Amino acid sequence: MPRIENDIKLDFKDVLLRPKRSTLKSRSEVDLMRTFIFRNSKQSYTGIPVIAANMDTVGTFEMACSLQKFSLFTAIHKHYSVEEWKQFAKTNPQCIEHVAASSGTGQGDFERLSEILEAVPNIRYICLDVANGYSEHFVQYVKDVRAKFPSHTIMAGNVVTGEMVEELILSGADIIKVGIGPGSVCTTRKKTGVGYPQLSAVIECADAAHGLNGHIISDGGCTCPGDVAKAFGAGADFVMLGGMLAGHTQSGGETIEKDGKKFKLFYGMSSETAMKRHAGGVADYRASEGKTVQVPFKGDVEETTKDILGGLRSTCTYVGASKLKELSRRTTFIRVTQQLNTVFGEGSQQ
Amino acid sequence: MPRVDADLKLDFKDVLLRPKRSSLRSRSEVDLQRTFTFRNSKQTYNGIPVIAANMDTTGTFEMARVFSKHTLFTALHKHYSLEEWKKFAADFPECLEHVAASSGSGQADLEKLCRILEAVPLIKYICLDVANGYSEHFVEFVKTVRGKFPNHTIMAGNVVTGEMVEELILSGADIIKVGIGPGSVCTTRIKTGVGYPQLSAVIECADSAHGLKGHIISDGGCCCPGDIAKAFGAGADFVMLGGMLAGHDQSAGEVIEKNGKKVKLFYGMSSDTAMKKYVGGVAEYRASEGRTVEVPYKGDVEDTIRDILGGLRSTCTYVGAAKLKELSRRTTFIRVTQQSSHMFG
């Protein structure tokens, strides 16, 4: 018999944060920097824990250069060659503290990762990313990478439930990527029916990880700065962004002109576009689990970054958190049926 | 661990009022006037408790002139100079009974407020408005203003929960502004994730305020006369309107012609547009929390007022309330999934 879990799992859109009494006078007083020491690598981290996703349109070297100025992090996508990495490390050594090198579990991925980490020894973070973090094969892979790189900080995922967060941490990962299907260009939920509402996934996985002194990344589902705040409020140590960072000067891909308007392509890493580009097409036995969209060109990512950080500071002020660290302790979510008054249309802020 | 409140909070769009038996013969019999005596100022109020918001597009002197004719109230925006106030008071003294002077919590704001209240002693109401009424700094500010003006009626906000309503009333405010994020040009919920569905906020805050003999204003989220009726039904003593009053002759700003259609600009007071206008731009450490929209030009606000008051009278008739005062006692909300038929768009 299939089992049905009766309590409703929640997405970002289902909640708002309840304001609380605050002694802060201005949002300029809020400190967004966090410091972590990781469970397995024993390394320490200091920065504003927002991460550009390891997608080939977002996790670019150009993005890393802009985001590191704000102490934000970039998970560089896995399709850069060793030569490109060497060149980047030589010309932008200041960025290396805030980037991770990514890898899948495929043939050749491990060799390439090893070559990159050997060529650029200053890289301290590894991002191991597979669509389904629940496979035994992936658990073994995490163990192998941990054995070879005992003092690198390892991000691994994606999963959405506490027991698998614990398994990956005990297998050597430091930071678990949480999210299956919430992304704006992800179609896993449609194609497979599998998924987990992101807010509930973060609350449950953060609890599991923190019990073992591990950390988590909320990966996917953020559509606006308020969602980033909700992810931190739910207990995420890091928040990873894809769609919100797409369409900028620093994003990968060409700018397209269409009817006088500028666009950039954005697509999931299991979409047909990505698979054609990197694997020569979609294999016969699988369906694409991502889509391709044209996002309006948004200019320099620095403006978007300021908007996100300004929103986060304001959130902290509303709930009385003088540091980002205190946000989840000060968080009470209330359940709602709508986010925004749409009487004048959904509209953008302009 | 973050906490999740299990019960669902409601917006205006989630409910309708259940009709009840009524002995009223016509909606013309309904009395919308209310009389209040305020807890801290001890002053009394008479009027129809609908307020034009203290936004620079809606809280204008022109709006106040029309509103006061109908005994409606205007919270004048804080960007008028002392000279403009003096002139208005000299030309239209009859309006002063139904207006408030506004202020933020900055030192310069307070000094200007003091000068205005000194120059125009007939102003009886003060509207203290900050985005986040939860800061200790604001509580102190309310106490300071109460200390300086013991007999003025003080409106203060915005907050959305009972404990903060009580705190502000005990700090000297008479009427608490309730609403974070419901406004049509407010983007606080998108930018910060913070907010509270307006109907639930009004129900909970009214309960807290009335327990202390205080009053509340439902501020924001009304898109149509029915929403105003729901706000009063939920227990609001006053209802404040922004977007519903935008785009009129009495709203500030130029009428723009666009593709043969007339529009007016309307924007949140923390939007890029407003921050550029008054403080020279958005500060580095913050994000704008409002947006700018073009609303179709709607002509004289008199027609809109008639529409709103007619709607309210009809509501009262449907639930059997002979007076606006009785509306919340006669209110039963039913939960719904749609407001009206969309058959013709």
From TrEMBL, chain A:
User: How is the subunit organization of this protein annotated in UniProt?
Assistant: Homotetramer.
Keyword annotations of the record: Metal-binding, NADP, Oxidoreductase, Potassium, Purine metabolism
Catalytic residues (positions): C186 (thioimidate intermediate), T188 (proton donor/acceptor)
Q: Quote the function comment for this protein.
A: Catalyzes the irreversible NADPH-dependent deamination of GMP to IMP. It functions in the conversion of nucleobase, nucleoside and nucleotide derivatives of G to A nucleotides, and in maintaining the intracellular balance of A and G nucleotides. Plays a role in modulating cellular differentiation.
Per UniProt, the enzyme's principal EC class comes to oxidoreductase
User: Which PROSITE patterns has this protein been placed in?
Assistant: IMP_DH_GMP_RED
**The gene coding this protein:** LOC114645854
Reactions accelerated catalytically: IMP + NH4(+) + NADP(+) = GMP + NADPH + 2 H(+)
Q: Residues in domain IMP dehydrogenase/GMP reductase?
A: 10-338
- This one is known as GMP reductase
Q: Taxonomically, what lineage is the organism?
A: Eukaryota, Metazoa, Chordata, Craniata, Vertebrata
**List of residues binding K(+):** G181, G183, C186, R189
UniProtKB/TrEMBL annotation, chain B:
Q: Which reaction does it catalyse?
A: IMP + NH4(+) + NADP(+) = GMP + NADPH + 2 H(+)
**Annotated residues for binding of GMP:** D219, G220, G221, G242, G243, G268, M269, S270, R286, A287, S288, E289, G290
Q: At which positions is K(+) bound? A: G181, G183, C186, R189
Quick check: keyword Chaperone in the entry?
no
- The residues listed in the UniProt record as binding NADP(+), with positions renumbered to this chain, are 26-27, 78, 129-131, 180-181, 269, 285-286, 314-317
Q: Could you tell me which InterPro entries the record lists for this protein?
A: Aldolase_TIM, GMP_reductase, GMPR, IMP_DH/GMP_Rdtase_CS, IMP_DH_GMPRt
| Function comment | Catalyzes the irreversible NADPH-dependent deamination of GMP to IMP. It functions in the conversion of nucleobase, nucleoside and nucleotide derivatives of G to A nucleotides, and in maintaining the intracellular balance of A and G nucleotides. Plays a role in modulating cellular differentiation.
Its assembly, as annotated, is:
Homotetramer.
Record protein name field: GMP reductase
GN (gene name): GMPR
